[in-house]
Amino acid sequence: MNSTYKAFWLEAGDLIVIDQTQLPFRFVTKTLKTSADAALAIQDMTVRGAGVIGNVAAFGVYLAARESKGDLDRIKPLAAVIRGARPTAVNLMWAVDRLISVLDKAPANSDLVEVALKEAIAIADEDVMGTRNIGRFGCELIEAIAKTKPNGEPVNILTHCNAGWLAIVDRGSALAPIYEASDRGINIHVWVDETRPRNQGANLTAWELGQSHIPHTLIADNTGGLLMQYGKVDLCIVGTDRVTRSGDVANKIGTYLKALAAFDNQVPFYVALPSSTFDMQISDGVKEIAIETRSADEVLYMQGLLDDGNIGKVRIAPMETTALNYGFDVTPAKFVTGLITERGICEAAETAIAGMFLDLIP
Question: DSSP of 94-142, one letter per residue?
């Protein structure tokens, strides 16, 4: 795997992030100096992916502490703005709440700037270890399929959106087993959904896999079902922004349709996630998860590389046409074969989740 890049890093006390809206055509970074910078980077999708959103939120609280000179009464309202930057990814709320809890419990006369920085770094370090474990557990599924393939044919994996190291440091969730399989020399091939309307699959997942020289093919979002009917998909692995205590999964819009196609064609459908993505407060994902509605322009226009070499956007619908842009959908637990976590593979069911993650249940 190409380990040259990370989604973010510290430099002279500031947080440097890759501007993911510029990929794959330009590698551009932004410097976040304030909590407002962090909130905006999350809101405008300079950074995205559940884990990285949580990381940037945590470092955003550190930046809030720095600009507030460690005054907790001033930190909390700034942190609340970060917490509300996007509604669906639970890692965002979890990370901010964890930072505030640590600051609340810090001994008197503590340097809250240093306390916040240390905790934000700890969250990122935990994510690194978690993604490595997700990769190992998920790779066992790929390895088992590889042993059944005649003549060393590749294991064909379908994924949706981007759940690689741009989304969760340092190997992602859904892509972590793929990176691990590549490291082990397993013959794999990835079907990459374009993931309209923001095209995170085409722009980000394809870019990541290309950086690591992993064979992949970009497909239109509506192609996956046909590939499953033709027997060209061995398993699906997707990431998630929130999982309920009963195993319902909120992920990028279009995930639910892939799960339905996989269910109809008996293709295993796995969801990879760190435990911080569980929301044990809710049970019914369809009724209780707030689905983000984004700008209609994301549907009405497409961004890409223009003939003159500049990045631009073109309108693809009549000028008088309006659009609705839900960012996520919910896949009920009954369509999920299993959850790949840093603790192991778990059935998408309340009793199984409670058995493996009892410590997370309030």
Answer: HHHHHHHHHHHHSPTT--HHHHHHHHHHHHHHHHHHHHHHHHHHHHHHH
Nearest 5°: the CA angle 349, 243, 352 is: 25
200 is in an annotated binding site: yes
d(CA 166, CA 86): 18
Residue 340 sits at the vertex; the CA angle it makes with 42 and 93, to the nearest 5 degrees, is 30
Q: Is 225 a known ligand-binding residue?
A: no
- C-alpha count within 13 angstroms, C-beta hemisphere, residue 356: 21
DSSP secondary structure string for all residues of 45-63? TSS-SHHHHHHHHHHHHHH
Q: What structural domains and CATH numbers belong to the chain?
A: 8-125 (1.20.120.420), 130-360 (3.40.50.10470)
Q: Map tokens 């020289």 to a residue.
A: 213
Q: Would the annotation count 251 as a binding residue?
A: yes
- Over the chain (362 residues), what is each successive 10-residue block's mean pLDDT? 67 95 94 97 93 95 96 96 89 95 94 97 94 97 97 96 93 96 97 96 97 97 97 98 97 98 98 94 96 95 92 95 97 98 97 95 84
Q: Known catalytic residues?
A: 241
